[in-house]
Amino acid sequence: MEEIVVESLLRGNREAQIEAAIELSNLSRKQRQKVAERDIISPLLSMLQSQDSITTEVSLSALLSLAFGSERNKVRIVKAGAVQMLLEILQSETKMVIVELAMAFLLILSSCNRNKIKIASTKLIQLLVGLIGLDQLTVQAKLDGIATLHNLSTLQQIVPLVVSSGAPYALLQVINSCDKSSELAEKASSLLENIVHHSPESISGIGGAIEVLVEAIEEGSAQCKEHAVGILLGVCSFDRETNRGMILREGVMPGLLQVSVDGTRRGKEMARELLLLLRDCSGYVIKDKQSKIEIVEQIMREIDQEGERIPGTMLKLVEEMISKLST
């Protein structure tokens, strides 16, 4: 069967190539590895450039199956020029099944460290940043696009390009527009946290950024809350003097206190660290005769001075947070 697939791809007419590409996707992993050694990547890439959507779709599926689980094939495919072809497909394709396949294919190719610089050297990052904000793109395609950007941004030298392409703004838009408890919000906030870790000034000047992150802390899943807290912690640590007041004015305290009590393990740690940055904790040294309620009232007075009011139902959370910070 492998020999028929190879012969059809190398020497067959277009109909035979389509049948061979379909059959290739159905081969076992071991069989796919064997046929990949026979120079079949070039004809499959040629099929990608066809004006016929069926040809494009089956060749994408076949190439994706070759790349899956094989670092060698990922490198071969990128060296053969696949990235530029995928860029052209994503710029012009309107059939969503092909767009989704192309996004999934890019995700797999970008998982290989040897491919990351080559992928980043094209205009693909700018294109992905633009695509993830489109309403007509499916959730799965957005998830794959964000995951591809995440793969690329694990190389620190690529992060400035991701930032300059507008990724922080696009990710904030995604977080703002989607269900905060969804996987999409989790992945978008995770990537944004990674970007802010390397470039803490990257969301400065983006109007409404702090508000979106505060809403994520209030409404998000446990993971989304964790990432949102991490982003605000990075921003506040970078420039406490400028950002502390802005964060407080957006009403972060109720949600932040909640995370400090019942968030993920990492979320709790970061929430408490951020609370210390937001409060002037030098004035909260517990004296032998100072009751816990006095410390709570002291914090409440400072919060009020910032123009923020915490509902009475949050008093217990504040008290519990103080207890844990002081142990």
Q: What's the overall average pLDDT, rounded? A: 87
Shape type: elongated
The helical percent reads over 70%
The description of the largest β-sheet is: none
End-to-end separation in angstroms reads: 69 Å
Tally of individual helices? 21
Task: Give a topology summary.
Layout (H helix, E strand, L loop, with lengths): L1 H10 L2 H13 L2 H8 L4 H8 L4 H15 L3 H9 L2 H11 L3 H15 L2 H8 L3 H8 L7 H14 L6 H6 L2 H11 L5 H16 L10 H11 L2 H17 L1 H10 L3 H10 L2 H14 L13 H14 L9 H11 L2
Helix pairs in contact: 1-2, 1-3, 2-5, 4-5, 5-8, 7-8, 8-11, 10-11, 11-14, 13-14, 13-15, 14-16, 15-16, 15-18, 16-17, 16-19, 18-19, 18-21, 20-21
Protein name: U-box domain-containing protein
Organism: Brassica cretica
Keywords: Repeat, Ubl conjugation pathway
Main features:
mainly alpha, ubl conjugation pathway, ARM-type_fold, 327 residues, Armadillo, repeat, U-box domain-containing protein, 0% strand
